[in-house]
User: Which sequence fits this backbone?
């Protein structure tokens, strides 16, 4: 199993916080959708924090 770089993980967090789908993220970062799903759970707090900082978000 290959380890993904911290930069890739941070970019995933950023893109999910922006609302991109797994399909779009997997294309851009060359990840599987299952990795996106796993990371969604793993980085939920970081994603939520970024979403909270964006204007107009509830």
Assistant:
């Amino acid at each position: 199993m290959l380890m993904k770089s911290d930069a890739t993980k941070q970019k995933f967090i950023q893109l999910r916080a922006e609302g991109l789908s797994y399909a779009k993220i997997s294309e851009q970062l060359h990840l599987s959708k299952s990795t996106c799903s796993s990371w969604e759970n793993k980085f939920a707090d970081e994603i939520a924090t970024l979403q909270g900082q964006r204007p107009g978000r509830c």
Observations:
- The chain has a mean pLDDT of 90.
- The CA atoms of residues 11 and 29 lie 8 Å apart.
